[in-house]
Amino acid sequence: MTTEKVEIFDTTLRDGEQVPGCKLEKRKKLEIAERLEAMGVDIIEAGFPISSPGDFASVKAISELIKNAKVCALSRAVEQDIIVAAEALKDAVQPRIHTGIGTSDIHIKRKFNSNQQNVLERAKNAVTFARNYAADVEFYAEDAGRTENSFLAQVCEVAIKAGATVLNIPDTTGYCLPEEYGQKIKYLKEHVKGIENVILSVHCHNDLGLATANSIAGIMNGARQVECTMNGIGERAGNTSLEEVVMILKQHEQYQFDTNIKTQMLCDTSQLVADIMGMPVQANKAIVGSNAFAHSSGIHQDGIIKHRETYEIINPADVGVNESNIVLTARSGRAALAYRAKQIGFNLSKLELDQVYQYFIKVADSLKTVNEKDLLGILKANGLKPTT
Ligand code: KIV
Ligand code: ZN
Predict the structure, then answer these.
(1) Are the CB atoms for 193 and 160 separated by under 8 Å?
(2) Is the full-model pTM beyond 0.90?
(3) For the segment 196-248, what is each residue's pLDDT rounded down to a tens digit?
(4) Which of 2, 197, 233, 298 has its CA 20 to 30 A from that of 53?
(5) DSSP assignment letter at 2
(6) Which atom of ligand 1 is nearest to the CA of 74?
(7) How is the chain split into domains, by residue range?
(8) How far does CA 268 lie from the centroid of its chain?
């Protein structure tokens, strides 16, 4: 079976750090960059060096530290931005300059008060200029999601001719539907001269909750790099979640895509980013939320205890979680009570279980969850003693 590699481009330290309140000092950025590299991220977007002296210093320090991953710095299609990005990347083993410009009508008219011809020229000049400083230049067509496909194809062609190695097709405003975004990538694959010589990249925002679905649609239609962040943090409603894309590709083996991510590091890395950025992960977040492997209803608990795969499609160990969590609540049944009691040394007979369950359910009704201490109290109140 031949699998195709999808490169993971992590922008937690750039798009993720743009979130209000998530600004990080250099030391913290280095800690995250080191972890991302250890986890197997292929490209780390370290920052936007022209934006501030602090960001410049962080990109420079990450460039000095990181040896295996490529280090990328953002710039606008502006010469001074590119010069400063190149300077910050000077010591990187594998530097990449990321430059680009808005391509949708609304960006061209309202942001630049310009026209398509001028955007084509600026795209060409920016990539040509960046290639003087780096062999690896990624071009982004900002708001590609709302850019008419035929013009987007023209921009991509110009960028390729000027020397771009990667083309980023961002759905900057998170507007596209998966079908539409997938078709956009397919259209570019079929209509852009030289596209076979570059990597197409997806960069999706989550304004309609579709960032991950759109990224996957892009991959299915020919993209081979996905831009994403840990926990999906990013501007507004965030970016595509790294952990979601990686696990979708892993769990759906039939599509034969692979990444370099050591998935067992996902949960710890998620926690590290959440702690450092002060952005807690919602409990029901896919893959890394605290409830992602927790089961509280009696029917589900009974199934999980009999055979884990009845209600879990991911082995928790694959993402660094010790085991599935059987949470005792007023919705739990006898199977879960017996299971949790056994875990703390009480092997209950059928009679004991029937008796203690009636008591348990009354206590559980007054609590959100029944923790280990509560359970011990319940068992002892019923005159039970540990059997092991
Ligand atoms: O969302 C976007 O368009 C971006 C670009 C700057 C790559 O983040
Ligand atoms: Zn973005």
Answers:
(1) yes
(2) yes
(3) 999 999 999 999 999 999 999 999 999 999 999 999 999 999 999 999 999 99
(4) 233
(5) P
(6) 6
(7) 4-277, 294-381
(8) 14
Among 28, 98, 33, CA closest to 64: 33
Ligand 1 atom closest to the Cα of residue 170 is 3
Tell me, using a 6 A CB cutoff, whether residue 203 lines ligand 1.
yes
- Domain spanning 4-277: which CATH class is it, in words? alpha beta
What are 15-24's pLDDT values in tens digits? 999 998 888 9
pLDDT tens digits for range 30-56: 999 999 999 999 999 999 999 999 999
Q: How many A from CA of 142 to the centre of ligand 1?
A: 6
Instruction: Identify which of 97, 98, 139, 168 to mutate to test ligand 1's pocket (most ligand atoms within 8 A of the CB).
Output: 168
For ligand 1, the distance from its centroid to the CA atom of residue 177, given in whole angstroms, is: 18
Structure-block tokens of residue 87? 């300077």
Tokens of 56: 């410049």
**Cα of 175 to ligand 2 centre, how many Å?**
13
15 within ligand 1 shell (Cβ under 6 A) = yes
For residues 333, 336, 342, 347, the Cα torsion angle rounded to the nearest 10 degrees is 30
Ligand 2 center to 282 CA (angstroms) = 21
172 CA from centroid of ligand 1 (Å): 6
Judge if the beta carbon of residue 168 lies within 6 A of ligand 1: yes
* CA–CA separation, 250 and 216 (whole Å): 12
Q: Which residue's CA lies nearest to atom 8 of ligand 1?
A: 15
Rounded to whole angstroms, how far apart are CA atoms 76 and 139?
A: 10
Query: What is the signed CA dihedral for 36, 38, 42, 43, rounded to 10 degrees?
Result: 40
